[in-house]
Amino acid sequence: MGDRNATITVTTPSGERVSLELEPGHTAQDVVSALIQGGKLPAEDSSGNAIRYELIDDASMTMLSGNSPLLEQGVGDGAELRVKPGARVAQA
């Protein structure tokens, strides 16, 4: 399972569904970064504070680890994931 690509669908907080190609080694952080770079998620709140996001597996309703490859966490082809905004990170 961990050596091939998978196509996943990620639902953003606004309800937009985005299809992504997940490669071996990609983590939840990689998916969130791709969504931010693609303009699907804001990187900062209105005060300029960075926003942390969590990735949830809709099938198991579990939060996926940000640093472990998603394919190794059981995320496979056709998986439905959801982005949940976490805490805002105050700038020092």
Present the secondary structure layout.
Blueprint: E1 6-11, E2 17-22, H1 28-37, E3 50-57, E4 62-63, E5 80-89
Parallel strand pairs: 1-5
Antiparallel strand pairs: 1-2, 3-4, 3-5
Describe the structure.
This protein has one domain: Phosphatidylinositol 3-kinase Catalytic Subunit, Chain A, domain 1 (Ubiquitin-like (UB roll)). The protein contains one helix and five strands; from the N terminus they run ββαβββ. A five-stranded mixed β-sheet has the order 2-1-5-3-4, covered by helices on one side. The chain has 92 residues and is mainly beta. The model has no long low-confidence stretch (mean pLDDT 90).
* Number of H/I helices: 1
CATH class: Alpha Beta
Output mean pLDDT. Answer: 90
- Helical content (DSSP H or I, runs of 4+): 10-25%
Q: What is the number of E strands?
A: 5
What is the C-alpha radius of gyration, as a whole number of Å? 13 Å
Strand order of the largest sheet: 2-1-5-3-4
Which overall shape is indicated by the principal axes computed on the Cα atoms? globular
First-residue to last-residue Cα separation: 42 Å
